Amino acid sequence: MSVQRRRVLAAGVLAAGGACLGAAISSTLARPSGPVILTVRGKVSITNGNAGADFDMAMLERMPQRSILTKTPWYDSARRFTGPLLRDVLAASGAKGSTIRAIALNDYKVEMPFDDPQKIDVVMARLLDDRPMLVREKGPLFIIYPFDDLPELRSAVYFARCAWQLRTLEVV
Fold it and tell me: Between the N and C ends of the chain, which has fewer C-beta atoms within 10 Å?
């Protein structure tokens, strides 16, 4: 084998090793520095807390944000909801499963297929009309489907999957 060929192979091995190292680094989740507002538990492979993957608001703010303007049954007119995509939060937790159980502060529970946020741009809204949502305004987190973008979502089935005052996601 020529010296040049060995250098190319060595460079490839180093690059692959770097990619593996990068994957290992990206498969960790920092510990929250502020109050935990969301816990993802159950079938998660990345944890940073006792019960699973814990997130504070700053962690959710640092994720890519998506805004949707949509009408809902809970407001008189279309409102702008902004936050990370639910699929991104699940990916950050290493979540894999068949069902997501969303649990609100008042213990309201609703289930959705794990595939919903994989196929649909479901937003975990932290802002309503560009302002943080207080608990009395259905905050601090509210799962919202893009109802106006996909009219087939405008049904009781999908409205029921929207959990406000979200505190926990259980992946089963």
Answer: N
Are 5 and 38 found together in one domain?
no
Check whether residue 60 and residue 126 sit in a common domain.
Answer: yes
Distance CA 122, CA 166 (A): 14
User: Structural domain of residue 26, as residue ranges?
Assistant: 1-30
Per DSSP, the three-state class of 40 is strand
Cis peptide, bond prior to residue 140, ω within 30 of zero: yes
| pLDDT tens for each residue of 84-143 | 999 999 999 999 999 999 999 999 999 999 999 999 999 999 999 999 999 999 999 999
Q: What is the pLDDT at residue 27?
A: 61
User: How much is the pTM?
Assistant: 0.83
CATH of the domain at 57: 3.90.420.10
| DSSP category for residue 85 | B
Q: Does residue 160 share a domain with residue 107?
A: yes
**Cα–Cα nearest to 94, from 13, 12, 27, 30:** 27
Contacts of 108 (CB under 8 A, 6+ apart): 163, 165
Tokens of 18: 């770097």
Count of domains observed in the chain? 2
Question: Alpha-carbon distance 108 to 102, whole Å?
Answer: 8
Are residues 15 and 53 located together in one domain of the fold?
no
